[in-house]
Amino acid sequence: MAGNGGPAGGLAGDGVPVAGAAEDGGPAGGLTGDGGPAGGAAEDGGQAGGVAGVDGSGGPADVGADEVGGPGRGARRGAAGGAGFPGADLVDREWSLAELAVAYAYPRQGPGGRQPWLRANMVSTLDGAAQHDGRSQPISCAADMRIFGTLRALADVVIVGAETVRQEGYRPARARAEFAEARRAAGQGPAPAIAVVSASLDLDYSLPLFTSPLVPTLVLTGAAAAPDRIAAAEKAGARVVIAGDGVGVDPVRAVQALAELGHTRLLTEGGPRLLGQLVAAGVLDELCLTISPMLTAGDAQRIAGGPSVAVPARFELASLLEEEGFLFGRYRRR
Are 310 and 58 in contact (CB under 8 A)? Predict the structure, then answer.
């Protein structure tokens, strides 16, 4: 994998999860829990060796196209990477999980304490499709899944729409031995919690997500959710978090509620409708976007759906990696 200020080489990983489709019903303007091809329950394959630290500068900032290493070579062009980014070694080789953890680290804690930081992880083809035949697997690759697993291992919680859970039989995040020491040092549990966004609470509580999670699964819903369904979720062992005054979830309230539970390193895997609602509410801080060198045509969803925003949200490029034509960009809100 070539990058701005980093080594090149392959990133081996396991299969890509299938994503859901439709959205869980709810009122306009609130988070209702959609599906979509934004990643799924499985994590990527790892390698031996510990990962040092889950916080940091997160890699190079303000890079341009001429600062991106070319395909198949370890050399980089342009300026070196930013603080903490693995940039000294220009050998064409596979990135270690430790190097990926540095490149994708969450921002360091400020003097006022840790503030919540919400990042999304999505994949798109050259013509804007977030899926092919209803799945993200055909447009992804092993390197994409290796980054997918690293992002999960760095997060406190993974936010996902209810339809993705229903369609995919979503499983709890697993503990990664390579990240265990770093998570303990950061005060994190063995694996990130899964937070399901649902207005209706129409969930299958026989899924492993509810029967055998390493950490309790969270369910985000509104204050007007049916009391019997809230009781059913709690009986199944889920922790119900009220994050809205109506039936649906208010995105701002959701971020605040998770932060109050100690979850400030936030990751969402979509799907597109959920991501669109987060963008519209102005709570998305970072987008990790894989550009797949494929064209699909058709009418597949984009990475973010729903009504358009009044003023486009401007993000800036923080880092860019490449492998076999796939681009792995990281964009931060300006």
Answer: no
* Rounded Cα distance, 86 and 121, in Å: 21
Bridge partners of residue 125, in order along the sequence: 292
Compute the distance between CA of residue 116 and CA of residue 203 in angstroms, rounded to an integer: 27
> How many domains is the chain built from?
1
| Separation of alpha carbons 207 and 172, rounded Å | 9
- Report, as an integer, the average pLDDT of 167-182: 88
| DSSP state letter for 109 | P
Dihedral angle computed from the Cα positions of residues 195, 200, 202 and 203, in that order, rounded to the nearest 10 degrees: 0
The two tokens of residue 259 are 């932060």
- What's the CATH number where 297 sits? 3.40.430.10
% residues pLDDT > 90 (the chain): 60
Share of residues in the chain with pLDDT > 70 (%): 72
Please name the amino acid found at residue 65: A
Mean pLDDT of 222-247: 96
Q: How far apart are CA 256 and CA 262, in angstroms?
A: 10
How many residues would you count in the chain?
334
Termini Cα distance of the chain: 27
Mean pLDDT over residues 256-262, rounded? 96
* CA 136, 142, 143, 146 torsion-angle sign: positive
Rg (CA), the chain: 19
Kindly report the number of other CB atoms within 10 A of residue 183's CB atom: 20
DSSP letter at 206 equals T
DSSP string, 277-296: HHHHTT---EEEEEEES---
pLDDT value at 236 more than 80: yes
Q: Is the dihedral of CA 100, 101, 102, 105 positive or negative?
A: positive
Structural domain span for residue 259:
2-333
Q: Over the chain, what is the mean pLDDT?
A: 78
